[in-house]
Automatic annotation (TrEMBL), chains A, B:
EC main group: oxidoreductase
Protein name stated in the entry: 3-isopropylmalate dehydrogenase
Chief place of localization: cytoplasm
SUPFAM superfamilies, per the entry: Isocitrate/Isopropylmalate dehydrogenase-like
UniProt cofactor note: Binds 1 Mg(2+) or Mn(2+) ion per subunit.
HAMAP family (alphabetical): LeuB_type2 (MF_01035)
Key words of the record: Amino-acid biosynthesis, Branched-chain amino acid biosynthesis, Cytoplasm, Leucine biosynthesis, Magnesium, Manganese, Metal-binding, NAD, Oxidoreductase
Cellular location(s): Cytoplasm
PANTHER family registered for this protein in UniProt: D-MALATE DEHYDROGENASE [DECARBOXYLATING] (PTHR43275)
Lineage: Bacteria, Bacillati, Actinomycetota, Actinomycetes, Micrococcales
Subunit architecture: Homodimer.
GO CC field: cytoplasm
Any Pfam family: Iso_dh
Amino acid sequence: MSRTVSLAVIPGDGIGPEVTAEALKVLHAVASDHDVEFETTSFSLGAARYLETGDVLTDEDLAAIASHDAILLGAVGGVPGDPRLVGANIERGLLLRLRFSLDHYVNLRPTRIYPGVPSPLADAGDVDFVVVREGTEGPYVGNGGSIRTGTPHEVANEVSVNTAYGVERVVRYAFRTAQSRRRKLTLVHKTNVLTFAGSLWKRIVDAVAAEFPDVEVDYLHVDAATIFLVTNPGRFDVLVTDNLFGDILTDLAGAISGGIGLAASGNINPDGTSPSMFEPVHGSAPDIAGTQKADPTAAILSVALLLDHLGLSEASAAVTTAVTADIASRAGRTRSTSEIGDAIATAVSQ
Amino acid sequence: MSRTVSLAVIPGDGIGPEVTAEALKVLHAVASDHDVEFETTSFSLGAARYLETGDVLTDEDLAAIASHDAILLGAVGGVPGDPRLVGANIERGLLLRLRFSLDHYVNLRPTRIYPGVPSPLADAGDVDFVVVREGTEGPYVGNGGSIRTGTPHEVANEVSVNTAYGVERVVRYAFRTAQSRRRKLTLVHKTNVLTFAGSLWKRIVDAVAAEFPDVEVDYLHVDAATIFLVTNPGRFDVLVTDNLFGDILTDLAGAISGGIGLAASGNINPDGTSPSMFEPVHGSAPDIAGTQKADPTAAILSVALLLDHLGLSEASAAVTTAVTADIASRAGRTRSTSEIGDAIATAVSQ
Ligand SMILES: CC(C)[C@H](C(=O)O)[C@@H](O)C(=O)O
Ligand SMILES: CC(C)[C@H](C(=O)O)[C@@H](O)C(=O)O
């Protein structure tokens, strides 16, 4: 009897629905070959839903989504500068609310330069690393405030909250990830300036390192890490860092590896106490929405991460292999979003 | 009668003294041609001084430095991991203390790709922008703390403090800088996550923009800004951003423009209420200290920024011209620190 997985699907805004359609096409194609079935429920969330109903994410939405085994998300966000969206903050109210409520403490963002993909770097070398970004703490907690707002005496604060509990669990995950790869872990922070948060991260990495004597550990300030990402990205295996530094480093990583159109991510709750969520790193790109110009590859690679997370590693590898072959065949060709999805879906079921 | 400028010199640690010696050589060479004299006082500060005396920067040091017209700094910081420096934090106690005490609210970091310099980018294009980094607020204020430190229940917070007063003055400086250049200003922040600080920055940029109708303004999230820095750095003219984002972006900018060995910076108090401080962006590189392998170019370009700040724009241009010509002649040559300094010093006085 085949296994059944319930999947909450949030296509979202802009190009989100288009790339999600292709990701699901590939998911269903590979599933039938690996004795698993995905039952999908689609949730209409994002800027469009907000403009229609005024809701960003209701408690009922959240409970319904949380009852699934996993989540696939396309992209959310309306047209930048849309006056009707001022004050809505779909990012905080939807994306970050999901990550925080579902305790997605690992934000997993792999970077590879696929054969055939041009990098903006003249000599990128062999690039294959993964950023383990903390997902539930740091400057993302939303503990800010302002006084005398709108006056010349305004003071606006943002608080970065970091806990031993929160840092240790993500650091431990990063060490395990390094152990399954090339056994190198780089902590990225800014310990010389953010001395309290930095000291906590550093002490926890040092303590956990003792349990993983086969993993080589080093440390870089975040500013120096950006230098190495453009001068010697091949030096990295696993990077572990806080929520904000991880946000910055992974966009840069996407850029050097040939564009954010290939960057996939998993918002993971490793303890399995709530469903993990997989999404491309790119945004909703409203300017090209509906034109079939979007590259669905990042969404499809997010499916590979999803399959891997569910323990379906063969199915995951089939997707990655099909994507890698497809990417290698791209030079000079222009295909629509669904043509790329069709090609990869056909390839995975062969 | 010639003008006399008093200059506090902080050679610092590692390669600091070597590059500072060359910077002073060039400064004195250009000064005599432009009817100005520099009286220098050297301050022995940094890791070496700390190890000798236990002092990082005494109130007396600070008062003595503050009585000068300007400051030239080489680099500070001991050997990474030196156990005797644990807990000293020379960066906070010396560099940041100077920036904060002397109210260096503009941290000016120009980036150019000089003709003849190889960039790690395959197709960098024409790159000439300047980052105006706020220098006295944001996550750098040192308002952090931790409770239950060292226990599994530790909470470590960092507070980013942003004021209308502090943001407005640096934003105004950035607009004036844009007006004297290509009239494009890009605000970089993370308004969708750091909603209070981001909103303050955004509102102030919008308000000040009304006074500069000839300057075109745009906005990028910090993660997106790193993408453009590697895919299309030519799009930037002036970037204005907070202390931490500015730190990260300028190291990346240094890297794409051919290395941090060419990146100069000014810590500026535009109101003239205290001396401004000029320094290369690079660190003290203790591993090559004393070997005459360090490139003094960033220190020499910091002299150009210093001269410009003092209103000696012809002398500043002479230094930039000499450096540009020297850089263009470098391909394949290896010269010692002092050979490079000698060549540029000779060129400026011709
Ligand atoms: C949209 C935004 C809130 C989000 C983040 O900052 O985490 C995005 O940039 C990302 O990296 O997934
Ligand atoms: C040494 C450090 C405190 C400093 C900073 O973070 O500002 C450095 O990185 C810089 O950019 O000048």
